[in-house]
Amino acid sequence: MEEIKYVTNDIEHIEDNYVRECIRAITDNQIALIPLIGFRGKEGYTYPEGTIDFFNYLKVKSNQEMKLAFDDYYNENVMHSEWIRIAEIAVTCGVLPIVTGLIVSFITDKIKRGKKDPKKVKVDLAIKVKKGSKTIDFSFEGDATKLEEAMRSIKEIANDDGHNS
Predict the structure, then answer these.
(1) Residue 81: predicted pLDDT
(2) Cβ neighbours of residue 43 under 8 Å, at least 6 residues apart?
(3) DSSP per residue over 16-78, as a string?
(4) CA 87 to chain centre
(5) What element of type H or E holds 126?
(6) Which of 22-31, 71-80, 129-138 has the highest mean pLDDT?
(7) Are 83 and 111 in contact (CB under 8 A)?
(8) Ramachandran region, residue 50 (left: φ > 0; alpha: ψ -120 to 50; beta: rest)
(9) What is the pLDDT of residues 133-144, one digit of tens each?
(10) Residue 4 CA: distances (Å) to CA of 120, 138, 163
(11) Longest dimension (CA), the chain
């Protein structure tokens, strides 16, 4: 599956109270990393392996206010494979172009540091773009070589007037 999937949702319909409040609270200068809920049957919240590195990378490179949605419950899920999974990101449209570029840079750097073949590395990510009282929830699962193209598509879809609330 090397395609962008997306759906528009009302923020009020987000089931998890913490996630709903986090997204409701983000502003144009904030980036929030949201954990996985109930990942692989585990109770509670977990962040993908390397979330702190990703958090610090975004904080330094973006000059935006960063927050972990659940820093009081930080629990990291370690994966040992050719997959790079990053925490779900919640932003507004204003910050989206910065974030998409930094995602590509972060993952490219991570592949180079690990001396991996980008053609064999898969990426799994999700982005919630807040637009008024709604979010556009994007997901991408596919080859790392397709990531830059996927990020361009996400920006185009999010900025499409048909998705304005």
Answers:
(1) 67
(2) none
(3) -HHHHHHHHH--TTEEEEE-EESGGG-SSEEEETTHHHHHHHHHHHH-SEEEETTGGG--EE-
(4) 5
(5) strand 122-131
(6) 129-138
(7) no
(8) left
(9) 999 999 999 999
(10) 19, 7, 15
(11) 43
Q: What is the phi-psi region of residue 100: left when phi exceeds 0, alpha when psi lies from -120 to 50, beta otherwise? A: alpha
Both structure tokens of 98 = 């910065």
- 3-class SS of residue 135: strand
Write out the two tokens for 105: 């840079």
Strands 122-131 and 134-143: antiparallel
Q: Which residues contact 70 (CB under 8 A, 6 or more apart)?
A: 18, 34, 35, 45
- Give yes or no for a contact between 52 and 71, defined as CB atoms under 8 angstroms apart: no
pTM: 0.84
